[in-house]
Design a protein that fits this description.
alpha+beta, five-stranded mixed β-sheet, three-stranded antiparallel β-sheet, 6 helices, 10 strands
């Protein structure tokens, strides 16, 4: 089961609280976040010693005006056309960062697909299925949660689709 830090025992982030409440197995990984780092996801992969194709970033986009979460490997980028198609939409654009933060309850660079203030439809890149576990933000810069893609899909009601590009 989970390794519990002092912060998690006192409530943790909304993501860890959601995981614990669901009884989902996960491992929490903390690292020292460098504010000067140009890429939160690549920083996490390097700090954790994990291949960048197993560390996924959480992006918020607007598909036909509706906020939608895209979870893609940090080694690549989001294909907005593929995201729109995955949810039956016509057009996707990146969401305004302030709207993403306000809606999810997380700050940029620490947005987790789990425990969001308002549950948004979620699409997980299908490459996640090729791994026993993946890492996603635990809701704070410098904190990642490792869990199975199957559990992440179930907890977020995510659609699996090829939305990432290398």
């Amino acid at each position: 089961m989970a390794k519990k830090s002092k912060k998690q025992q006192s409530g943790g982030t909304p993501a860890t609280v959601a995981l614990t409440a669901a009884g989902t197995a996960y491992t929490l990984h903390a690292y020292e976040h460098d504010p000067a780092s140009p890429s939160y996801g690549e920083e996490a992969a390097k700090a954790l010693g994990v291949s960048p194709d197993r560390v996924f970033k959480t992006l918020v986009a607007e598909v036909d005006g509706e906020l939608t979460v895209a979870v893609v490997p940090v080694a690549g980028s989001l294909d907005l056309k593929a995201l729109a198609a995955a949810v039956g939409g016509k057009r996707a654009v990146m969401a305004d960062p302030a709207a993403a933060e306000r809606t999810t309850g997380y700050v940029r660079g620490g947005i987790s697909p789990l425990g969001q203030r308002k549950r948004l439809r979620t699409v997980l890149d299908s490459s996640a299925d090729g791994h026993a576990t993946i890492c996603v933000s635990a809701g704070r810069r410098g904190l990642e949660v490792e869990l199975s893609p199957t559990d992440l899909t179930a907890l977020t009601a995510a659609v699996l689709a090829p939305i990432g590009r290398v």
